[in-house]
Every structure is written in structure tokens, then in C-alpha cells.
Design brief:
It is a single chain. The chain is mainly alpha-helical. The protein has one domain. 68% of the residues lie in helices and 0% in strands. It contains 3 helices and no strands. It is elongated, with a radius of gyration of 16 Å.
């Protein structure tokens, strides 16, 4: 499943996204998606959510 989310950026933010093209992807959507996933991983949010989900699944199995 995928979902489109519309966001707005300032001219300065667009310049920054343009500079990141190729590092995080080739399209604006790829770059924004890559930045969001990298940020979530850096903040350990992704691993925390997965750990919690696994823990909940184990508890429900008991």
C-alpha cells in the first residue's frame, strides 16, 4: 500500500533537496522519503517500534 502526502517547502529547502539528489534518490519524492527514513533510523525510532511490536506479539502468544 502506498499513500501520497503533499508537503510544501521553501525555496531554500528546495535548493537543499536539489543538492541531495543522487544521494537519497533521483526524484524529489525519493529524496524526501530517503531523508525521512534516515532520520527515523538515526533517532532509533524504527528499531524501537519494531522491538515493541515483537514484544507485543510475544506477549499475545503467551
Amino acid at each position: 500500500m502506498s499513500k501520497k502526502i503533499q508537503v510544501s517547502f521553501s525555496d531554500r529547502q528546495i535548493e537543499l533537496l536539489d543538492r541531495l539528489r543522487g544521494e537519497f534518490g533521483e526524484t524529489d519524492a525519493d529524496v524526501v522519503r530517503g531523508i525521512v527514513i534516515a532520520w527515523l533510523a538515526e533517532k532509533s525510532f524504527i528499531s524501537t517500534v519494531i522491538k515493541n511490536r515483537i514484544s507485543q506479539e510475544l506477549e499475545s502468544d503467551n
